[in-house]
Every structure is written in C-alpha cells, then in structure tokens.
Design goal:
single chain, alpha+beta
Length: about 110
C-alpha cells in the first residue's frame, strides 16, 4: 500500500463498511467494532506469512512481530510499513499466491 493513504486519513477508513453508506459492501447491520475485527482477522491472514500479528489496541492497532517487537499504528494504511519493519519478510497484500489462497477459501 502506498503512503498516500496516510495523507488521506483523518476520517473513517476508506475500507469502512459500517456506518458508511458509501463504504465497500455497506451493511447497516454491521457495527463498527464488528467490521474492525473482520479487517483485523483478514490482515492477520496476510501477516501469517511474516510471523507478525495485529491486535486491536483501543483507538490504535498493535502489531507484534515474531520476536515480540511491537509497533502501534493508527490504521490499516500504516500496518504494512510497520509489518515490514518487524516481520520476517516483506508484506505484499496483493501477492498473487495469497490472493489465490483467499479466493479458494471463499
């Protein structure tokens, strides 16, 4: 993910479904907390290859690497840079192998 997402932040995330009629797959039945947990689970599937793990940490997200090193990030736009810094290998959420794996599970 490019750094421009960080410049555009300030409101709700561009991925936001809950409370966002213009969000991707908007669903009024989904709470903001449930949507945040869904995104964290998906990101953890991506991070599994690196040994890092993302957790909800109040208003922030906590990323923990395989050695226990942690970084606090504000939103998903910053997760990938932090994961590169503490993970075992670079994170590519658009990796063809990972995307194929996601498609096969749905």
């Amino acid at each position: 993910m490019c750094g421009a997402c960080g410049v555009l932040s300030g409101g709700s995330e561009w991925l936001e479904r809950a409370d966002g009629p213009d969000g991707i797959g908007a669903d009024k039945r989904v709470t903001g907390a449930a949507e945040r947990q869904r995104r964290i689970r998906l990101v953890n599937r991506i991070l599994a290859r690196t040994g890092a793990r993302l957790r909800d940490f109040g208003a922030k997200l906590m990323l923990q690497g395989p050695t226990g090193r942690t970084k606090l990030v504000d939103d998903l736009a910053h997760v990938w840079l932090a994961a590169d810094a503490i993970g075992l290998k670079r994170v590519d959420p658009l990796d063809d192998g990972f995307l194929d794996e996601l498609r096969s599970r749905t």
